[in-house]
Design brief:
Oligomer: single chain
Largest sheet: none
Shape: elongated
Number of helices: 7
Length: 154
């Protein structure tokens, strides 16, 4: 595995990201924008799932916010590996990095279970509250893990 990680770090793309004045900054900016779009859409939806602002119809709100969240997730998932390859061996050795990947996986599974099961429109209020609560815990934890990773990985 170490050889593969080293190979990634030595790739021309990884080297360009490390030395380019605008390369890393652009990719990092796109990653942050993706996270902002994702979390900015998920938090109000999670709060609605928990019962806040019940006067707002859930299904149309979910359609709107989930579309934005998916766009943000796809942008973050597209740029995250690019940020990873610049310091692949260092990140892979960090327990915090594995924690972040695990939390992302759990958050995505949580969303899929809610949407692919009975769906938001037909889920029980208990199921909505559980899914919203889990999501509201996981996504901020992912952001925190990601921010800390940039400072503890040496």
């Amino acid at each position: 595995m170490g050889a593969l990680l080293s190979l990634l770090e030595q790739s021309s793309l990884a080297q360009w990201l490390r030395v380019s004045r605008w390369g890393y900054a652009s990719v990092n900016t796109l990653h942050v924008l993706g996270i902002a779009l994702l979390v900015g859409a998920i938090v109000p939806l999670d709060l609605r799932l928990l019962g806040w602002r019940r006067s707002i119809p859930l299904v149309p709100l979910a359609r709107l916010l989930q579309g934005a969240a998916i766009a943000g997730l796809l942008l973050a998932l597209a740029t995250g590996p690019l940020l990873f390859i610049g310091r692949a061996t260092e990140y892979a050795d960090q327990p915090l990095f594995l924690t972040k990947l695990t939390l992302i996986s759990l958050a995505i599974v949580n969303a899929l279970v809610l949407n692919l099961g009975s769906g938001i429109a037909h889920a029980t209020s208990r199921h909505l509250r559980i899914a919203g609560g889990i999501s509201l815990l996981l996504w901020p934890a992912i952001v925190i893990a990601g921010r800390f990773l940039g400072f503890v990985a040496d």
